[in-house]
Fold this sequence. Notes:
By secondary structure, the protein is α/β, with parallel strands linked by helices. Helix content is 41%, strand content 27%. The protein has five helices and ten strands; from the N terminus they run αααααββββββββββ. The chain has helices at residues 2-24, 40-52, 57-73, 79-104, 106-118; strands at residues 123-128, 131-135, 144-149, 152-156, 166-173, 176-180, 186-194, 197-200, 211-219, 222-225. The strands form two sheets. It has a five-stranded parallel β-sheet with strand order 1-3-5-9-7, covered by helices on one side. Strands 2-4-6-10-8 form a five-stranded parallel β-sheet, with no helix packed on it.
Amino acid sequence: MHKLNKIIWGLLLVTAGVLFALNAMEITDVDVFFDGWWTLFIIVPCGAGLITKRDKWGSLFGLLLGVFLLLCAQDVWDSSLARKLIIPAFVVFFGIKLIWGGLTGGKVRKILAEKKISGGSYEETCATFSSCNVDYSGKVFEGGAVSAVFGGVKCDLRGAIIEKDCVLKVSAIFGGITVLVPPTVNVQVETTSVFGGVSDKTTDTDLNTVTLYITGECMFGGVDIR
């Protein structure tokens, strides 16, 4: 996916360079700086994210926002009406996301319910106006929770013993969380992002291996998984 992201950006840059060159030679007369051209800096990355990222909700929201702003800049939509509708649209979008998460998050709920019954180990780490590193090397990891509020947390699972599917709950509020995952573990992201996001740089492994489900929320913060 990382290579595909580079290819998409490379093609876009080559296209832009060719257009500038053709305009300079007066072969074409393409208005590159049209009304609302700046929205492309929102639309293009988010459009690429729909293809390359696993957590596509943030990319979808950014794409819709970019298209919305472009239509306003092009006077397709009345800007005064648009300003009134943007907050309700924002609320509806995340309401749909929460509903979708409730319908598709059965596996996560099942794992958490089984852990509650079995009494398995579940560690919680919180950094508030501070930073901390958590290293699970040599330890059995059965699940946990990591929170960063105006702070940062580095959760290193590369040396952890992960024998079955588990859940890591993350909460990044004006903070950042880095999760380092062993290459033998699959990762599935089910998070809610509000002016934040999750960057998942891991790759899928054999489907017969265990899966780490990362769930939670990002509000003006971010989670980096690699």
